[in-house]
Amino acid sequence: MSGALSTAHSVVAPSGRVKLLAGAIVVLYALVALVPLLWIGLTSIKTPPDSISYPPKVVPFVHFEPSIEGYCNLFNTRSRQTADYLASLPPANSACEEITRSRSMVVVGPSNYVPRFLNSLIIAFGSTLLSVGLGTCAAYAFSRFKVPMKDDLLFFILSTRMMPPIAVAIPIFLMYRELGLSDTRLGMILLYTSVNVSLAVWLLKGFIDEIPREYEEAAMIDGYTRLQAFRKVVLPQATTGIVATAIFCLIFAWNEYAFAVLLTSGTAQTAPPFIPIIIGEGGQDWPAVAAGTTLFLIPILIFTVLLRKHLLRGITFGAVRK
Amino acid sequence: MAEIRVDNLVKRFGSFTAVRDTSFTVDDGDFFCLLGPSGCGKTTTLRMVAGLELPSSGSIRLDGEDVTFKRARERDIAMVFQLFALYPHMNVRKNIAFPLVSMGVPRAETRRRVEEAARVLRIVHLLDKPVSGLSGGDRQRVALGRAIVREPKAFMMDEPLGALDAEFRHLMCGELRALHDRLKATTVYVTHDQLEAMSMADKIAVMNDGVIEQLGSPQEIYDRPNSMFVGDFIGSPAMNFIRFEGAAIAGSSSVTIDAVAISLPKLRESRAPGPLALGVRPEQIAIGDPGRTGGGLPGEIFGAEYLGTNQIVTVTTPHGMLKARLPAHVRAIAGDRVSLSFKPERLSLFDAATGKTIRSALHDANMTRRGHG
After folding, report:
1. Interchain contact, B78 vs A221, CB within 8 Å
2. Looking at the DSSP assignment, which residues form a beta bridge with residue B138?
3. Is residue B85 less than 8 Å (CB to CB) from chain A?
């Protein structure tokens, strides 16, 4: 009866109310997910007393004065001195020195954070490169060639992920000690690669399977070798998959904690086992720990933001491909 | 350009034989069609000629040179794929130039040859566009451009029009043939569409079940099918088969079906009484009033499809349904009883047990083709 019924709206697109609800849920989830990050960021700019005060101090400049003390303590090692000695020193030549002296201490040298951070970079990016490189080659072979016992091999590769890697910690520990790989960057790169390569093979095989063989056949007829065709035709089209896989591998290797604690102690120690054991005066130095964590987030953030276009396409790959 | 000679080619995939003992020669400059239903081995044959599959046995010669086990890139053959296989990460210009890059052609010459190919195909305005936004026809032209830019010895085309819609396919058929006439390039073209094959090819090889059933010009294949399969596969509607028991006698010019004598080209072979089949093209059938013209097969009109210039009339007979192509003005109403007569000049007779043709005057070497009836 209602002649004024509008038919201008789409019947398949979500309505305004649904979109609003969806938006609200996303924002709510983002807030919940971001609270710990926000808290870490805030803690990193507190002084040690502010960081453990109760009730918690939340809003900078209102509840507490931001300080760079956490960052100073993260990068420097300090030593307690007598008041007489401190008085005998020339004026402090840096903000950090001044803060340190106000706690009756002096800066005696750089901390191990920078070398540990470098270890993390080398090991995580090294193992990612290796995993994705090996994974791409293996995935291409599984996708295109007649590999004897192909299905069994693929299942075997997958089966290495069927238990938590730490379950084999003891054999790996003994093996590494025997081989002299304990506490070496190479050892950690190989370990993370061995964990990640199965994921890489499976993910990349899916992506490469989706690239029609005709592309390589066309290139081979047009005068290219298979390797050239792989490099010039398959790789560019697999970029999305390679990037998505690289991000997954990098996140695993970057965040890995258990093996890093077990197998590294000095020269090859990565940041994750180092950060929580930054000890300050009278217990854990929470601002320094928070500062270490905040800085630790940055490389992966940059990497992911730079490649996010590929990542989004990679995750929805196959679902929306024409 | 080159002559392609294929001898006794066999390809087995495990226990499945895709191509069995296939031999043919494509003359220099010919447009050669491999035609057959899907799974008949035509694409496998093409891929072996192109070097994408290795034959189980047999040989392939390109201009006399044995290339049977040579790599695809060493054969100097270009190929156009059904789904075009344009590289999505390159624009049109780079796609067309891709084969030249592998040959190490200098940049200026590459540019000149790419633009020349684009001019031939009338896609100069698309050169700097990405391939992803192109229409099917333009993609097809780019794929052709990538093939012709190299000036290869021969072109392989694997159902290149299969992905286009019907109207456009017809247009591209004309363009492909015009391009071939201009380049005079030896071309092997695979299709399952008999209209494409008939309209473009100099020679057609009809394949079925891994073997070439018949090789000849489109006219030969249409007028003188070697087997019932070819008669059935070529032509739309297909050839009608009137199956009957009888004998064929060399020298005789008629067969007897249900006591009606049907005249046909003078037989050159004999067959003892057994199952035979008379092959009748739809346009060779005429209908008349029953009883008035003596010597016709009785039938009843089942229905008619009006096509404008003519109509396809389906007639029920004691030997099954027959389809006749009749002038549009002929009155054909379902249920009418009619008498069928056949134009005798190009009727075929088959041995229904083997499906093979029984030779007649139709197959005489000096048989010249007369216009369609």
Report:
1. yes
2. none
3. yes
Over residues B257-279, the mean pLDDT reads: 89
Instruction: Find residue B339's DSSP bridge partners.
Output: B288, B298
SS3 of chain A: the string is: CCCCCCCCCCCCCCCHHHHHHHHHHHHHHHHHHHHHHHHHHHHHCCCHHHHCCCCCCCCECCCECCCCHHHHHHHEEEEECCHHHHHHCCCCCCHHHHHHHHCCEEEEEECCHHHHHHHHHHHHHHHHHHHHHHHHHHHHHHHHCCCCCHHHHHHHHHHCCCCCHHHHHHHHHHHHHHHCCCCCHHHHHHHHHHHHHHHHHHHHHHHHHCCCCHHHHHHHHCCCCHHHHHHHHHHHHHHHHHHHHHHHHHHHHHHCCHHHHHHCCCCCCCHHHHHHHCEECCEECHHHHHHHHHHHHHHHHHHHHHCHHHHHHHHCCCCCCC
User: For chain B, which residues make up each domain, given as ranges?
Assistant: 4-223, 228-363
Q: Considering only CB atoms, which chain B residues are within 8 Å of A237?
A: 87-89
Q: Which residues of A touch B102 (CB under 8 A)?
A: 222-224, 228
Percentage of residues in chain A having pLDDT higher than 90: 56
Residues from chain B that touch A214, judged by Cβ atoms under 8 A, are 81-83, 85
pLDDT digits (tens, 9 = 90+) for A214-239: 899 999 999 999 999 999 999 998 98
Which residue(s) pair with B297 in the sheet? B340
pTM: 0.79
CA quadruple B35, B37, B43, B49: dihedral positive or negative?
A: negative
pLDDT at A92: 83
What is the residue-averaged pLDDT of chain A? 88
How does residue B370 score in pLDDT terms, banded at 50, 70 and 90? very low
Domain B228-363 has CATH 2.40.50.140: yes
Q: Tokens 């049977």 label which residue? A: B68
The reply to whether domains B4-223 and B228-363 share a CATH topology is no
Q: What is the DSSP letter of B253?
A: -
CB count in 10 Å sphere of residue B262: 23
pLDDT in tens, A104-139: 888 888 999 999 999 999 999 999 999 999 999 999
- Domain ranges in chain A are 40-111, 114-277
CB–CB contact B71 A220 (8 Å)? yes
CB contact under 8 A, B79 and A221: yes
- Residue B20 predicted with pLDDT over 80: yes
Within 10 angstroms of residue B19's Cβ, the number of other Cβ atoms is 28
Q: What is the CATH number of domain B4-223?
A: 3.40.50.300
The position carrying tokens 């299969």 is B162
Task: Determine the residue type at B196.
Answer: E
Q: Give residue for tokens 């899907």.
A: B38
Architecture of domain A114-277 in this structure = Orthogonal Bundle (1.10)
Percentage above 90 pLDDT, chain B: 57
Can you give the pLDDT at residue B325?
94
Q: Give the pLDDT confidence of A10-20 residue by residue, as tens digits.
A: 777 777 888 89
pLDDT for the residue numbered A309: 78
Q: Taking residues B204-218, what's their average pLDDT?
A: 94
What pLDDT is stored for residue A254 in this prediction? Answer: 95
